[in-house]
Write a structure and sequence with these properties.
Layout: E1 7-14, E2 17-26, E3 33-40, E4 57-60, H1 66-70, H2 91-104, E5 112-114, E6 117-119, E7 141-142, H3 146-154, E8 207-213, E9 225-228, E10 246-248, E11 257-258, E12 262-263, E13 271-273, H4 278-281
Parallel strand pairs: 1-13, 8-11
Antiparallel strand pairs: 1-2, 2-3, 3-4, 4-12, 5-6, 7-12, 8-9, 9-10
Length: 286
């Protein structure tokens, strides 16, 4: 019998749309932790550019924190506190964290590592995807690719906004998100304003790794990855806009780069509806 993953979930209204926010739990006892997701619809898509994803998927509501990452590895120095986004991790380390999420639930790892070295999946591997040899198609959790990330951040159902704010306006530093060298460090996740598609800090706080190479045509593990979203070190609103993308080596790390996790949408029968609004209220800015 197929094993169901039981999720705590809440349905609420955002911009006239019904949105599912769900919580996946990992581990047990003192090692238990959870990740909250919002569902991004595949019903509408941009006609060109980034953000075209023609199926539903889930995006992490928040960046992965030091506490969450510590359940996988204790090697990170965790400079900024338990609820701040984890930084100083390489793309390869982020990918291994995602593999840990999958294997801890008996799922297929997203990324192929052999003797500690990443390899692309090959046609003889079960779950090989010609269009994305980095991600195993049978994996449930993964790093978002650039289309998935951009759509979750900036797509309002009709256009890609310049900014991820609810109304598309330039974000206010210190209110909507953390940039413009306001604090000289990341702030705790959920400290800013809820964004367009009910995420937090896809603008600012820390840059975030994309799954795909910066040059998306060549899926070679050593090639630079795309980073998106800006960080606390930026001093120009354009840095947190949909226009900006940069590259970073997958073996490198930096004090202003972190990541968030994306996921397949679970089967409807594995969702448990709790209430309307109650869960989300505690996620609003204090």
């Amino acid at each position: 019998m197929k094993r169901l993953v039981i999720l705590a979930a809440v349905m609420f209204l955002a911009g006239g749309n019904v949105v599912w926010a769900s919580i996946d739990t990992f581990g047990a006892g003192e090692n238990q932790f959870s990740i909250e997701f919002v569902t991004i619809s595949g019903d509408t898509n941009p006609a060109s550019g980034y953000g075209n994803v023609d199926h539903d998927y889930r995006m992490g509501m928040f960046e992965i924190t030091n506490t969450q990452y510590s359940k996988f590895s204790v090697d990170n120095p965790f400079y900024y506190g338990p609820d701040a986004p984890v930084v100083d991790v390489s793309w390869f380390e982020a990918a291994q964290f995602v593999n840990f999420l999958n294997t801890s639930k008996g799922q297929q790892p997203a990324y192929k590592f052999v003797d500690g070295q990443m390899e692309a999946w090959q046609p003889y591997d079960q779950g090989y995807d010609l269009n994305n040899p980095f991600r195993n198609s049978n994996a449930k959790y993964f790093l978002p690719n650039e289309d998935e990330w951009v759509k979750a951040a900036y797509w309002n159902g009709a256009i890609l906004q310049n900014y991820a704010t609810k109304n598309g306006a330039v974000p206010v530093a210190g209110t909507d998100t953390n940039y413009d060298n306001l604090l000289d460090q990341p702030w705790n996740v959920a400290s800013g304003s809820e964004e367009l598609n009910d995420t937090f800090d896809m603008m600012g706080n820390v840059w975030e790794y994309m799954e795909n190479p910066f040059n998306g045509r060549f899926y070679i593990p050593e090639l630079d990855r795309t980073i998106r979203g800006g960080s606390f070190t930026g001093n120009d609103p354009l840095e947190v806009s949909s226009f900006i993308r940069y590259n970073f080596p997958p073996h490198g790390d930096a004090a202003n780069i972190g990541f968030r996790v994306a996921s397949e949408v679970p089967e409807p029968c594995s969702l448990v509806l709790l209430s309307v609004g109650g869960l989300m209220l505690r996620r609003r800015k204090k």
